[in-house]
Design a protein that fits this description.
single chain, 4-stranded mixed sheet, 4 strands
Length: about 90
């Protein structure tokens, strides 16, 4: 069994003040909706030092920036989900 891959959502001061903590339950529901609980998890991370790019997450060696509650579903399905196929 492969270990779970992790989405690290920035929880540094700036991202936290911008409501980054509100994105965790949304991301968890997206993981559940796509039946990825056995292979993908989301965790908060200390500052990822890219504050100028807005709320962000790190996944599979890349950084996804400019996340909002309004675009996180679209960004998940476009940028994360394709990488999870075959996990």
């Amino acid at each position: 069994m492969k270990p779970k891959q992790t989405l690290y959502l920035c929880m540094g001061s700036a991202c936290h003040q911008l409501g980054g903590f509100r994105l965790i339950p949304i991301m968890q529901s997206l993981i559940a909706r796509h039946n990825l609980e056995d292979c993908l998890e989301v965790k908060g991370a200390f500052c990822l030092e890219m504050c100028e790019h807005g709320r962000l997450l790190k996944f599979d060696g890349s950084v996804i920036t400019g996340l909002t509650a309004d675009n996180i579903t679209e960004r998940f399905e476009a940028e994360i989900l394709p990488r999870c196929q075959g996990i």
